[in-house]
């Protein structure tokens, strides 16, 4: 197993035109807690997570993915990674420095191969969190993020080379090739995945629930509230996790999940799952079919933030 400098996914930051509507959705319906606000920026935490926040919302005229943030072991790991990326010609947004968002810390930002802004930080203060109780249908933590790429093979290679992510599994379509790569930075089956799409964009953000009952209760709450369901409920083959996908008010796909597989990394060998097998997409057979409409929603809008760092 490779010694990695990155440890885990911290948060995903979104810019949206209708800030108040988006914030109300993520707090009152999705189940996150606002812990701080600063001039059109809201920091939203999961009650079960030690992370200061797992979603940041920023008011902007254009919808975009601001950044994806990962944790590192310590300041030395941050410095080492920054030096390695700069030596490899990766464009840094800024050098390692003190972080001024909730919880502080030490980190830097850079562009990945598709132009997304990535942040890596360490020494962020742990947030006081709590155990999520039985039947409490709110997210425990952020699970993973999936991105679209017009060249997923190159994006996969980039993350393997520069950030030491490893391939866990892939989805493939016979005679056409691979459709999605599930990538890990720790024993969790995937902290990110790379999907083949027509353009660079956010595919979906996934949130871990306490268990299957809480996952179903949360899914039901959204359905009763009239939130658009994209796909689910079901259980994937790759990762063996449950899924229910919904649209937030700005058309981003977000997921409730639970029971994502933990791997014995030293003994794991990736599989390429054929998506023409119905059980690959949904072992249970309870989800609506994955069709062109589902795929279209997951493509999302073209990301306007490629190689343009967010202002904050």
UniProtKB/TrEMBL annotation:
<dbReference type="InterPro" id="IPR029068">
    <property type="entry name" value="Glyas_Bleomycin-R_OHBP_Dase"/>
</dbReference>
<protein>
    <submittedName>
        <fullName>VOC family protein</fullName>
    </submittedName>
</protein>
<dbReference type="InterPro" id="IPR037523">
    <property type="entry name" value="VOC_core"/>
</dbReference>
<feature type="domain" description="VOC">
    <location>
        <begin position="141"/>
        <end position="259"/>
    </location>
</feature>
<dbReference type="InterPro" id="IPR004360">
    <property type="entry name" value="Glyas_Fos-R_dOase_dom"/>
</dbReference>
<feature type="domain" description="VOC">
    <location>
        <begin position="8"/>
        <end position="123"/>
    </location>
</feature>
<dbReference type="InterPro" id="IPR051332">
    <property type="entry name" value="Fosfomycin_Res_Enzymes"/>
</dbReference>
<dbReference type="Pfam" id="PF00903">
    <property type="entry name" value="Glyoxalase"/>
</dbReference>
